[in-house]
Amino acid sequence: MIEKKIEISMLYDFYNQLLTAKQRDMIDLYYNQDLSLGEIAQELQISRQAVYDTIKRTEKILYDYEKKLKLFGLFNSKIASIEKLKEKVLQLEEMIELDSSKKELKEEIKMMKSLFDELLNNSIL
């Protein structure tokens, strides 16, 4: 359940401007402010079932946006590439401290350049 809450919150961060004000409010209240369906219904003066239906429909819309636009997936891919680069920099730093050969250092730098190229080539321009 926690994973879904995080996922919906992240999708909301990416796509909230594509939702109606009513959809934004309900998703924000439910997922980000952790209000119950009953509390949201009371605050918005609608039925609990209407809140539930709107939230479920909006979740589907958010997943559909991600399926088509893939912004969240691209973001996660970029984060993974940056983490790989950080790891490579740390490895390179360690190799320098251990007085590794120039050949080994050049190979690490070559791999880092490749990761940078991958990161830059997959960017949305």
TrEMBL record:
Which Gene3D superfamilies does the UniProt record give? Winged helix-like DNA-binding domain superfamily/Winged helix DNA-binding domain (1.10.10.10)
Coiled-coil regions, chain positions: 82-122
Which superkingdom is the protein from? Answer: Bacteria
Annotated signal peptide = none
Per its UniProt record, what InterPro entries does this chain match? RNA_pol_sigma_r3/r4-like (IPR013324), UPF0122 (IPR007394), UPF0122_fam_protein (IPR054831), WH-like_DNA-bd_sf (IPR036388)
**UniProt keyword annotations, A-Z:** Coiled coil
Pfam families linked to this entry: UPF0122 (PF04297)
- Give the protein's biological function: Might take part in the signal recognition particle (SRP) pathway. This is inferred from the conservation of its genetic proximity to ftsY/ffh. May be a regulatory protein.
Record family assignment: Belongs to the UPF0122 family.
Q: What is this protein called?
A: UPF0122 protein SAMN05660297_00168
Source species? Natronincola peptidivorans
Please name the taxonomic classification of the source.
Bacteria, Bacillati, Bacillota, Clostridia, Peptostreptococcales
